[in-house]
Model the fold of this input.
Amino acid sequence: MGELKSLLYMTFIQEDRYKIFLDGLGNTLLLTFISFILGTAVGILLCWAILSENTAVSKFFRRFRSFLMELPTMVLLMIFVYVVFGKSAMPVFWCVIAGLTLKAGAFLSDIFESGVNTVSPGEIEATRTLGMTRWQAFRYIVLPQTVSAALPMYQSQFVSTMQETSVVGYLAVVDMTRAASVVSSRTLDAVVGLVTVTVMYFIIGAIMKQIFSLIVKRFHRGGETA
Done:
């Protein structure tokens, strides 16, 4: 017990090392939320381009998406940091967000496309027979089915985006994983730091799962009362 107390003291109290974990937590949350929100917008636009009736446009953006999905996240981030913005004054933090946004957007566009494809053409034709406008068909037929089909994978992609932020420590950005590494190098013990970030990741994931569940319930409730 005494040894454990000593490890906890060295890990969190000595030299105010808990602040390193808090900084890492803050950066991880910022990286995740900003890149995921922007990635959602990118994913929608990319999905729209891929579903374009223009064959050339569709093929180009489909291949572009495949390139982003297959390229390792670390390589993509290094391209943004050292090549795309290498000679600019842009902070590394925002270079990383740009890379993570494109990465998330690629996967999200695939999720959105799968959701749209769950709506059968026959249902769209039926709305025209009933005299619905394109907006009404989208609001009452396409959107509910697309969201219902895509939301579980959308939630999973949020967790994946959060996990991908764990590589940014190699680019001098202090996230939770990097924080654990920094503290462990000072205490010469990796266990407490790793357990700490593991719990942090778990808590964030659990909270977001509950938030997404509430969104799903609210969405369906709104659809019933519309």
Observations:
- The mean pLDDT is 89.
- The chain has one domain: 15-166+175-225.
- Residues 23 and 139 are 42 Å apart (CA to CA).
- The chain is about 80% helix and 0% strand.
